[in-house]
Amino acid sequence: MSQASRTKKPDVKIVILGDMNVGKTSLLHRYTERKFKDTISTVGGAFFLKQWGPYNISIWDTAGREQFHGLGSMYCRGAAAVILTYDVTNWQSLAELENRFLSLTDTANTDCIFAIVGNKADLTDALAQEPEPKSERRDEPQPVVTCPTPPATPLQHKQVSREDAIALYGRVLLYKGLEEKACLPAERMCFETSAKTGYNVDILFETLFDLVLPSILKKRSEGENAIVDLEMPMEVKKTKAGCCAGQI
Ligand SMILES: Nc1nc2c(ncn2[C@@H]2O[C@H](COP(=O)(O)OP(=O)(O)O)[C@@H](O)[C@H]2O)c(=O)[nH]1
Ligand SMILES: [Mg+2]
Predict the structure, then answer these.
(1) Per-residue pLDDT averaged across 141-168, rounded?
(2) pLDDT at 66
(3) How far does residue 135's CA lie from ligand 2's centre (Å)?
(4) Whose CA is closest to atom 25 on ligand 1?
(5) 111 CB-contact burial (10 Å; exposed 0-12 / middle 13-18 / buried 19+)
(6) Where in the cell is it found (predicted)?
(7) How many structural domains are present in the chain?
(8) C-alpha angle with apex 201: 171 to 87, nearest 5 degrees?
């Protein structure tokens, strides 16, 4: 297999789920483009491929189908992690995760990891209104900041507390038939983010990237994604190579 085709093949799948307008596309856009736009169209059906160390991670957005056509069982199929997203200013958006979206995760991997994400935290928390700190490269001079810090926007009522999200996490594990003690703790897997300012966005995605790595290694050791290794005996090379196209 050529190096080029290897770099394009996703090793693992992460999906973003949640009601229309909670900011799913904005979160992905913020992470990938480091930008926020007030109006952003959810482009058709695409997933974003992120190289993380030697691995390729695909991150799936709903492409607006949560609004118009609903999401089929294919959307979460084979997912190693699911980001259940709500809007902290909208109680109903949290309820919808349980009512409409959780059942879609039945087709995800059995060891799928769940993150509960309350977006638009900039609307309710002063801390989340601060601009995202620039990533610091010590070998480059830092630009002089010329624009003044914009005045803080008045805060809105937070309809969903962190405790509500933590309680939902517990119910997700229950739905999945998982033992809470054996799973990642809710404190670690519930995030409040702002796609607008970047608050907690990198940490959300990168925590998940690290957490899905064992799933990649497991898949590889099971041979689903076998890569021809000239130093390995022939029996290993023959395992289900080539079936990965159906995984996404
Ligand atoms: N204040 C604020 N607005 C946001 C944030 N994320 C998204 N929005 C806005 O919410 C609306 C819906 O965002 P979008 O990403 O299209 O949501 P999606 O339907 O879940 O993909 C847009 O007007 C965004 O500008 C955020 O973190 N803070
Ligand atoms: Mg969208």
Answers:
(1) 78
(2) 80
(3) 26
(4) 38
(5) middle
(6) Cytoplasmic vesicle membrane; Cytoplasmic vesicle, Phagosome membrane; Golgi apparatus
(7) 1
(8) 50
